[in-house]
Design brief:
Number of helices: 3
Shape: globular
Number of strands: 40
Low-confidence stretches: 1-30
Radius of gyration: 25 Å
Largest sheet: 6 strands, antiparallel
Distance between the termini: 29 Å
Mean pLDDT: 85
Structural class: mainly beta
Helix content: under 10%
Strand content: over 45%
Length: 516
């Protein structure tokens, strides 16, 4: 059943936003393009509808596309030129996130982003030295260190401080960036995997929410509580700052061990961590199978205390992960609902130089792999567009299956096709996945509810398992012969292969859902 139109409200600022990210035509039909799909989670359990995500080239300060998440947290950027990108997510009450992601031509990059709630918010008087703490970590602000604009000293400010301790089971998920960093030397060093022992995020605002920085020549002090497990056990340890431009950590400075903490100075606010390059000289080989067959293209990871290693399975269903020797890790897989599913908890890794191979069996619903996937996105109006996938019959002469908001389907049994979410508050995405092809012709169509397609900014992106990416935009002006937009046909052969992809792009009534 459809949810009432007034259940979810979009922020006024989003009402005028034109969607350029979700399914935007950033290159058209080309194997040089890729797709980013993912899901936003909130460590504070707040509503995720309408949270804006901005996509930009790594190193650039300008967003090339934006999109909001829908009520279930799903988001998508379609037809993105291959390269390195950063996704920025900012929301009041949450730690700002800058997630690095690499887009490969003809491939769907899938990721999850978790927004962690701000830990401590405290009003401070800039004329006095103040200490703000969260989870026993501390930031010390000297008297008169805060400035706004061109080093203009301010009097009162609000400090937001969030501490993450490495022993937190959700430590890696709550990081505002991936755990990869650029060492200070040599110049232009290659990024390396990091093992961190704590993170502190600090931001300061003045009146009216105006950003406040450290004044020229001013510094602040950060103190990380030393946990018994893990204890770095060294007198000094590198400090790393999250570079928002690249989404990577950069080594800047050193923290020195005191009686109960590591203490270091910073000359700018943001996210800071203490850590070292991960000495990952052991190997964990993960093999994923389903229905007795190896599963390529599955994202897997090993998470330890303060570090993680990720990979994608190859044609043999295997991914080789470089891990910390003799450590305890969780082995996880990104499942069909874009969540990290724990396959094995607390598994001991081999000694240095050793290798551990294990096979893991997943069900079709858990895995969510696909023969092809179709993503629908649109703008703020109309609020509700509906995805329809017409599926060939299970047996010759039988009825076709229709996958839409009232029948979301199944990946484990016929029709082996599923709609992930029914979005009714604008933008999308709605993703329809075909896991196992039934011989015949699939047809994908779009229907607006309470509006027209020609002013919706609607786009559809098709991604196939063999790396084909196609982008479609609703024709304008909209023809007068119906509101239903038949977008494309995919013909599947008897051996679960795609025989042909045909562009349909015509309007009509419900009859156009039957490709025959």
């Amino acid at each position: 059943m459809k949810r009432p139109r007034n259940v979810i409200c979009i922020l006024a600022a989003l009402a005028a936003l034109y969607l350029v990210g979700c399914g935007s035509d950033q290159g058209g039909i080309s194997s040089a393009n890729g797709v980013i799909t993912g899901r936003l989670f909130d460590g504070g359990a707040a509503n995720l509808a309408g949270v804006t995500l901005a996509l930009r080239r790594a190193g650039s300060t300008s967003a090339q596309a934006t999109t909001p998440s829908n009520g279930d947290g799903y988001f998508s950027f379609g037809a993105v030129t291959a390269g390195d990108y950063v996704i920025d997510v900012a929301r009041a009450g949450a730690v700002a996130c800058h997630r690095a992601v690499t887009v490969v031509g003809g491939w769907t990059s899938r990721l999850t982003i978790t927004l962690g709630p701000v830990g401590t918010v405290e009003a401070v008087d800039n004329s006095q030295e103040v200490e703000v703490s969260d989870l026993d970590d501390v930031v010390i602000l000297p008297a008169g260190c805060l400035a706004a604009g061109a080093s203009r000293q301010i009097t009162n400010a609000s400090v937001q401080m969030t501490a993450l301790v490495a022993s937190n089971p959700a430590y890696t998920q709550l990081q505002p960036g991936v755990l990869r960093g650029v060492p200070a030397t040599p110049a232009n060093a290659t990024p390396v995997a990091l093992r961190t022992f704590g993170m502190i995020d600090v931001s300061v605002t003045g009146s009216g929410g105006m950003p406040v920085a450290l004044g020229s020549g001013q510094t602040a002090t950060l103190q990380w509580l030393i946990e018994p497990d893990p204890d770095p056990g060294v007198e000094s340890i590198p400090m790393w700052r999250l570079d928002s431009a690249t989404g990577l950590w950069r080594q800047e400075g050193v923290a020195t061990r005191a009686e109960w903490c590591y203490r270091g100075t910073i000359n700018r606010f943001g996210a800071w961590a203490i850590g070292v390059p991960l000495q990952a000289n052991a190997t964990k080989v993960v093999r994923i199978v389903s229905d007795g067959a190896p599963q390529p293209g599955v994202m897997v990871r090993a998470t330890g205390v303060g570090w993680e290693a990720t990979g994608v399975t190859d044609a043999a269903g295997q991914a080789s992960l470089a891990v910390l020797p003799e450590s305890l890790v969780n082995i996880e897989v990104l499942d069909g609902a874009t969540r990290w599913l724990v396959l094995r908890q607390g598994e001991t890794m081999p000694a240095a130089g050793g290798s551990l191979n294990n096979e893991y069996t997943l069900t079709a619903d858990q895995l969510g792999t696909s023969l092809f996937q179709v993503t629908l996105c649109w703008g703020s109006s109309p609020r509700d567009l509906d995805s329809y996938m017409s599926v060939p019959p299970a047996q010759a002469g039988g009825p076709r299956a229709m996958i839409y908001y009232r029948n979301k389907g199944s990946l484990a049994a016929y029709p082996y096709c599923q709609l992930d979410t029914d979005d009714v508050d604008g933008y999308g995405p709605e993703v329809t996945t075909v896991r196992r092809g039934v011989p015949g012709v699939y047809r994908f169509a779009v229907r607006p509810l309470g509006g027209r397609l020609d002013n919706a900014g609607a786009s559809v992106v098709l991604v196939t398992a063999d790396g084909r990416v196609r982008t479609y935009r609703a024709p304008t002006p909209q023809p007068a012969d119906g509101l239903q937009w038949a977008v494309l046909d995919v013909e599947v052969g008897a051996n679960n292969s795609i025989v042909a992809i045909r562009d349909v792009s015509r309007f009509g009534g419900l009859d156009i859902l039957n490709p025959s």
